[in-house]
From TrEMBL:
Transmembrane segments: none annotated. Keywords: DNA-binding. It comes from Nonomuraea solani. PROSITE patterns: HTH_TETR_2 (PS50977). Residues 32-51 bind DNA. InterPro entries: Homeodomain-like_sf (IPR009057), HTH-type_TetR-like_transc_reg (IPR050109), HTH_TetR (IPR001647). This is DNA-binding transcriptional regulator, AcrR family.
Amino acid sequence: MRRERTDAARNRAKILAAAEGIVAARGVEGLSMAEVAAAAGVGVGTLYRRFGDRSGLAYALIDAREREFQAAFIEGPPPLGPGAEPVARARAFLGALTDRTAEQLDLLLMAETAAPLARFGGAYDAYHAHLALLIGQARPEADAFCLADALLAPLAAPLLAHRLGTGGVTVARVKAALDRLLAGFVIEG
């Protein structure tokens, strides 16, 4: 694998920080290549060469955050990372995933609705495998495979965007409901 030049890495970090700021202020609809380039202090051509287009830039934002999140639950400190008991890890994972989804909801909504099965694959498969493993450790007799899907379903970006945008549902309420579901699956089940 070829190593990224130092100046290219610095530009990438500046571009992603500028894009994150714009998305935080105005949502994904406000993401303009020209504005990101200006905010990052790079040329528009640099942006297009590196990311291709606006959706490529959006996916880069998702990817950067996703790598941080996966590192946290794979090798970070407990309870999210290794070292805590399975139910505590699953609870920490679901809470952190709820926060992670809410933080980039506009971007994830765009990504998850790009195609009929766009939500599934890479990151979802990693989440599912992790959660199924933890459920299986806590309750070996449980159908951990299907229970993991049931626990991940409320965190689909279209559903979460709908619920957070209407009806007074909050991130805290979603986390509390996921805690209750998890308890029912692994403690009371």
